[in-house]
Specification:
The chain is built from three helices and twelve strands; from the N terminus they run H-E-E-E-E-E-E-H-E-E-E-E-E-H-E. By secondary structure, the protein is an alpha+beta fold. It has a single domain, classed as Lipocalin, CATH 2.40.128.
Length: 203
């Protein structure tokens, strides 16, 4: 056996082992996605009397992202949780008027190609223009969102800074004033920071 043949025979197993241990690419992100409500959270903060900040949340979240990038998030306003039962009731009835306006929606048009190369553990920050619809009014909200691939068929979309939502722009100023009066407060700030962490699963 000549020297060249021996080298080839020794090199072949090493090459095979290298191929077997090379990292494989994740499956494409193309397709339809549905929100995993149990792994998703949306919170907002209110400030009363100019200095008392309180954190609240919504538990009733649902949503989807279609293969063409059309994204929608629905927030069941009756699911508001403030930590105080009577305040939950007042927000449902006086602020959101959930009988006539049971849900808030957020819609956006995403570019699927922007996320095509995202691998597990990668995060991509993207500017996103959204439309927020609450109480029969619409507001355009632009923000930056972080999209992280958690694994095969799962991504997380989250805020990287609070989104400031104004009660005036969404026809909620009168409801805020009703809350202020019934709670006998000096003030309730009309600008509300909102944060969220949303997990989507591929269908």
């Amino acid at each position: 056996m000549n020297q060249f043949t021996r080298i080839c025979l020794l090199a072949s197993p090493l090459a095979l082992a290298a191929c077997n241990t090379a990292p494989t690419e994740d499956a494409p992100l193309a397709g339809d996605w549905v929100l995993s409500s149990g792994e998703s959270h949306l919170a907002f903060t209110t400030v009363k009397n100019g200095q008392v900040a309180e954190a609240h949340s919504f538990s009733g979240l649902s949503g989807s992202v279609s293969a063409d990038g059309a994204a929608e998030l629905s927030i069941a306003l009756a699911s508001v949780e403030t930590g105080i039962d009577i305040r939950n009731e007042r927000m449902r009835d006086l602020l959101f008027d959930v009988v006539d306006f049971p849900a808030a929606t957020v819609t956006a048009a995403l570019d699927p190609a922007a996320f095509a190369g995202l691998q597990t553990g990668d995060t991509l920050v993207q500017p996103v223009a959204t439309t927020l619809s609450v109480h029969g009014a619409n507001a355009e909200v632009a923000t930056d969102l972080a999209v992280t691939r958690l694994g095969e068929g799962k991504v997380n979309v989250s805020t990287i800074a609070p989104i400031i939502v104004s009660a005036d722009s969404l026809d909620l100023a009168d409801g805020v004033e009703e809350l202020r009066n019934i709670a006998n407060l000096d003030s309730i700030t009309g600008q509300v920071p909102v944060t969220f962490s949303l997990t989507f699963e591929q269908q």
